[in-house]
Amino acid sequence: MEKSRLALPEKPFRIHGGANTPHRKNTRHSQSVVMPCPEQVVLPMSQHIGAPCKPCVKKGFTVAVGDVIGESTGHICAPIHASISGKVSKITQVRLPNGHLYDAVVIESDGEMRMSKSIKPPVINSDTDLIKAVHDSGLVGLGGAGFPSHVKIDIHQENHCDTLIVNCSECEPYITADNREAVENTEDVLYGIITLLRYLHVERAIIGVEDNKPDAIRSLKAAINNCKEKEAKNICVLKLRSRYPQGAEKVLIKACTGRTVPPHKLPVDVGCIVMNITSVGFLGSYIKTGVPLISKRVTVDGSAVNEAKNVIVPIGTSVRDIIDFCGGYKETCGKLIIGGPMTGVSVPDDSCPILKQNNAVLALNKKDSLLPPATDCIRCGRCIKSCPMKLAPVNIETAVKMKDIDALNKNGVTLCMECGSCAYNCPAHRGLVQIIRMGKAMVHNAAKE
Ligand code: SF4
Ligand code: SF4
After folding, report:
1. How remote is the CA of residue 432 from the centroid of ligand 2, in Å?
2. With a 6 A CB cut-off, is 436 part of the ligand 2 pocket?
3. Measuring CA to CA, which of 45, 344, 377, 448 is 20 to 30 A from 220?
4. Considering the domain boundaries, does residue 182 fall inside one?
5. Is the residue at 440 inside a domain?
6. Among the three residues 289, 314, 332, which one is the final residue of a domain in this structure?
């Protein structure tokens, strides 16, 4: 008997909690600009979740764009490629926004952007070929997560994965990089989706797009309608109500399929793979060209920067070079954030390089950088209503103060995805995310003892 086809959803499912953050999508209509080759790039060996790479070049080596300069050292690891051509000037150590030191390869540009002779499109005839190609491309989750994509797509048949969810919700304020990917690179996005459906034997793909991106919705729908491939009838665009943190994996799965990922389980346990739209678009282009992951679209915005825009930069370009390309600072920068204002990381200066998973640089002036002072908790319960994971942040805060590990575990502190919705909605401006991080560290340390 023929298996019945899984229906494509016509409207999203209700999600729990979240916050009505402002959109501030100032660069939504800003056609991406390719930044000229910088004089130097710094390529840290850790640009993903998992084991860092090992440099496979030495000082003085000449490299071309696309040459591997950092080799994988484990399964959960993705190779790193030269993003400009030139000479390796040093192997050094850099401190990344996560506070850790990593080896880094520094390349001085020869100004030529010479492409590597090793570049050629991969041959794909099976899921194994696809997984290997994705590994060799250096692809990691480009929406911010940085999880190596070849591991994510290495699903086993017994998992019955039936749904690919393409994440174009881009729910953080300011960021429009994925919006521009959907508009500017639509054909590659569709090609990437079709490839994944075909070789992973996944039944359907749902592209989740928030309703504040009408141009992305239009472009994607038109491309699907015009597509002659048989997989196209199993792909849909699902318009989602704009609400933070819709782009969080578990929240998006709920919105697109109605399925709930149980605590400590993965998307694949409910039959889903979630991939960021820029990752899928890159995959489509890699399969056609063989050019590995060497550049990244970054939204540059904020009250301290002169010209807000979307810029395509070689990975490893310094934030300073990118800000200079955007006309420099127009005011003293009070806070520099890599990523969005809700989940991004504040960095002390603009010397840090752009990594694969970075999608925004926000330079805020002093006024916009100030947070209101925290006052006493008024037990209003808004943090509980806001939590998409149905946690009680106010109780976690009490457990942290009491150093009560049992209470932290009972309140599911490790399930917190640090979205910040609770803190955003707290009328007392409590620093709930920082407190929850402390709670997680306490649980972690207690488990080690
Ligand atoms: S939202 Fe803030 S003030 Fe209200 S209960 Fe939670 S922590 Fe307390
Ligand atoms: S407790 Fe964690 S998951 Fe829940 S709203 Fe706060 S930061 Fe988000």
Report:
1. 8
2. yes
3. 344
4. yes
5. yes
6. 289
Give domain status of residue 149, yes or no: yes
What's the Cα-to-Cα distance from 400 to each of 122, 308, 376, 428, 438, rounded to whole Å?
51, 40, 16, 18, 7
Tens-place pLDDT, residues 290-348 = 999 999 999 999 999 999 999 999 999 999 999 999 999 999 999 999 999 999 999 99
- Asked if residue 391 and residue 285 are part of one domain, the reply reads no
Q: Is the CB of 33 under 6 A from ligand 1?
A: no
Give me the number of domains the chain comprises: 2
Asked if residue 78 is part of any domain, the answer here is no
Nearest-atom index, ligand 1, CA of 432: 7
The domain that holds 144 is classified in CATH as 3.40.50.11540
Q: What is the DSSP string of 70-116?
A: EE--SSS---EE-SS-EEEEEEEEEE-TTS-EEEEEEEEE-SS-PBP
The answer for residues whose C-beta is within 8 angstroms of residue 229's C-beta and 6 or more apart is: 194
Phi and psi torsions of 163, nearest 5°: -135, 125
Last residue of a domain, one of 232, 254, 289: 289
Task: Encode pLDDT of 43-67 as tens digits.
Answer: 999 999 999 999 999 999 999 999 9
Pocket test for ligand 2, best of 416, 429, 430, 434 (most atoms within 8 A of CB): 416
